[in-house]
Amino acid sequence: MLSHPLSSHIPFDASLNYFVGTFDIYDQEESKEFELSKYNPNNSEDREKLIIKYCLDPDEQLSYRHRYTLMKTLKHSLDSKDFNFHAFFEDNHDEYTSMAWNEDEIEDPRDFFEEIYRLASDKWKDDLDKASQEDPSSW
After folding, report:
1. What values do phi and psi take at 11, rounded to 5?
2. CA distance 115 to 113
3. What's the domain range around 100?
4. Model's pTM, two decimal places?
5. Could you give phi then psi for residue 115, rounded to 5 degrees?
6. Is the pLDDT of residue 29 over 70?
7. Per-residue pLDDT, 26
8. Is the sign of the CA dihedral 124, 12, 83, 85 positive or negative?
9. Is residue 80 part of a domain?
10. Which of 9, 39, 98, 123 is positioned for an S-S bond with 46, CB 3.0–4.6 A?
């Protein structure tokens, strides 16, 4: 079983929230919201900067196995025509989340995740190749 990167006993949940959860600004409105407001997630250049700076494991906490697992989940989601990418940009007041941009402000959430996939495939290429040589059931 692949464990959470910061715990040896919690199973790893390869949710797409790993990629965009960093845009949760709840209780950080003055600092994080100000920083993120400099970017327009619908502008391709800004979106690429956002993804590289915030979405692709900026703290280097994920192993090559975690990255591979996340990419499989992302690929599977992108292959589903009806997958709801909007949901990852919705605020959830019951869980105290507030996204920097809500689903109405992101013109095409699917495109945002497609860009994540493209950039991660390049940046994580060596890790993805390494993990693909292993049997994930042994993790």
Report:
1. -60, 145
2. 5
3. 17-133
4. 0.91
5. -70, -40
6. no
7. 84
8. negative
9. yes
10. 39
